[in-house]
Amino acid sequence: MDQKTLVDAQFGSTAANYLSSAVHAQGADLQRLTELVRTLRPANVLDLGCGAGHASFAVAAGGAASVTAYDLSPQMLSVVDAAARDRGATQLVTRQGPVESLPFESASFDLVVTRFSAHHWSDMTAAVAEMARVLKPGCPLVVIDVIAPETPLYDTVLQTIEILRDASHVRNYRVSEWTSMLAAAGLTVENHDTWKLPLEFSSWVKRINTPPERVAALTAVFKALSTEAKAYFAVGDDGSFSSDTAWIGARKAA
User: How far apart are the C-alpha atoms of 217 and 206, rounded to whole Å?
Assistant: First the structure.
């Protein structure tokens, strides 16, 4: 499979898991999104790689007039549509397609958000350029994602366990990489906050239906990690661990 087909296949079959996943459905970052929207009062918001729509619902709760939930997977969008009906989020619409080629006019959105998606994008240069293109001048972008540590050893560990767990994984980027990529597209990082995201091993692999042979490989990798890496990722006896996660706020030049 090519990368887009792999991502679609991987998440299409597990779409419903992400609506109820505590890792995705909860978090102070979602409340922060709601509060940001209450402050900014954006008319049009785009949620890129929306998954089960948690960021979309957070900005809708903040009072955004129009929210577009955009994803590569039609099955994910079906989950979002059903949840939007259940929640009465009438201002939310879904659109399907890749992030590297967005079907929107330039300067269409007052706020662009992406949450726990960018590590699956195959062409970050094109994707970031598209985010900048559809954002109105002077308006903000928010990236929320697991990030790679700046230390090469820990970066390597993270990418290894991520692709063993999920074959559609491309890369978790370092904050320094995000800053450079956004700057190249004309976006200036104004703030970034990081925190540790605890991940319970059995639900982490079950959510994406990791095959048994890859689960075994993950267990072997965790056991073989250096003392420093085990401490950094807070690896438990059952394989549970913590990942670095970030909120990166940027703005397009006015």
Answer: 15
| Residue whose tokens read 């700046």 | 150
Give the Cα separation of 94 and 221 in Å (integer): 39
Asked if 254 contacts 138 with a C-beta cutoff of 8 angstroms, the reply is yes
Tens digit of each residue's pLDDT (9 = 90 or more) over 55-99: 999 999 999 999 999 999 999 899 999 999 999 999 999 999 999
Residue 155: which H helix or E strand, with range? helix 152-165
Instruction: Let me know: does 81 contact 94? Beta carbons within 8 Å.
Output: yes
Question: CA-to-CA distance for 45 and 135, rounded, in angstroms?
Answer: 9
Smallest CA-to-CA distance from 43 within 107, 121, 127 is with 107
Residues near 164 by beta carbon (within 8 Å), at least 6 away in sequence: 210, 214, 217, 218, 221
Closest CA to 117 of 52, 182, 201: 52
Contact between residue 251 and residue 141 where contact means Cβ atoms under 8 Å apart: yes
Exposure of 95 in the CB half-sphere (CA atoms within 13 A): 15
Contacts of 248 (CB under 8 A, 6+ apart): 142, 143, 144, 175, 178, 179, 182, 189, 191, 192
All domains of the chain, ordered by start, with CATH? 3-148+169-198+244-252 (3.40.50.150)
**pTM tops 0.85, yes or no:** yes
